[in-house]
């Protein structure tokens, strides 16, 4: 049995188009090549972003934001919330938004942060089932998707260096234990470093580079699935800050 997906549901299209409208009028900056890979290079003009958001809010009868950042927020990068009703296809909407952002803005590197292993497996399953659907919608655009696995760090290098659309799924528990507690990794003793998770340790097979540094270098776009469960503590927010994203899209239902 082959599943068919309807790409034209009005409420899903509204969510996707509103997300793309946030970045209307913004252009890429440079070619994206960095020391460790190929980065997202969208130029984020704060004034333009805020003006775009206010226009979207006006159209949807939402109270206007007065600032791009919340007071005393721990995040130094922009966060945008997309709230949907339960059962309206949240996962499909953010996956379609990834492909649209790649098509329209040239963004290549996306990390989906989920609250649990079960949801991570659900997202991987959705991508597997919808793979041909997305290829049919986007002219067979090449893309890769995979979950973060500390036993297969080649995927982290691939995520950073590939010139195609890359989607990495990771559950918050995989990297928050260290990143949420450590303020400055340069101050750690050799014994403390040995106790860190693999993602925060220098790897010989990566020429002495930490896996997290490959991710940081390419300025990924974060998709936060169920933020009320992902980054609801200061520790989790500090961990997410270690990813050094370009911006985050927060999807809740």
Compute the average pLDDT: 91
Query: Largest sheet, order of strands side by side?
Result: 1-6-5-2-4-3
Percent of residues in beta strands? 5-15%
What would you call the structural class?
alpha/beta
**How many strand units?**
6
Question: How much helical structure, as a percent, in the residues?
Answer: 40-55%
> Could you name the ranges where pLDDT drops below 50 across 5 or more consecutive residues?
none
Q: Roughly how many Å is the radius of gyration?
A: 18 Å
The shape, in one word, is: globular
Distance between the termini: 29 Å
| Number of distinct helices | 10
Biggest sheet features:
6 strands, parallel
Name the helix and strand elements from N-terminus to C-terminus, one letter apiece. Answer: HHEHEHEHEHHHEHHE
Architecture blueprint of SSEs:
Layout: H1 10-21, H2 46-59, E1 79-83, H3 90-105, E2 109-114, H4 117-137, E3 143-147, H5 154-161, E4 165-171, H6 173-179, H7 190-194, H8 211-217, E5 221-225, H9 227-230, H10 234-241, E6 247-252
Parallel strand pairs: 1-6, 2-4, 2-5, 3-4, 5-6
Task: Briefly characterize the structure.
This protein has 253 residues and is of the alpha/beta class. It has helices spanning 10-21, 46-59, 90-105, 117-137, 154-161, 173-179, 190-194, 211-217, 227-230, 234-241; strands at residues 79-83, 109-114, 143-147, 165-171, 221-225, 247-252. Strand 3 (143-147), helix 5 (154-161) and strand 4 (165-171) form a beta-alpha-beta unit.
Describe this structure in words.
The protein has 253 residues and is an alpha/beta fold. Helices cover 40% and strands 13% of the residues. The chain has ten helices and six strands, in the order H-H-E-H-E-H-E-H-E-H-H-H-E-H-H-E. It has a six-stranded parallel β-sheet, sandwiched between helices. The two termini are 29 Å apart.
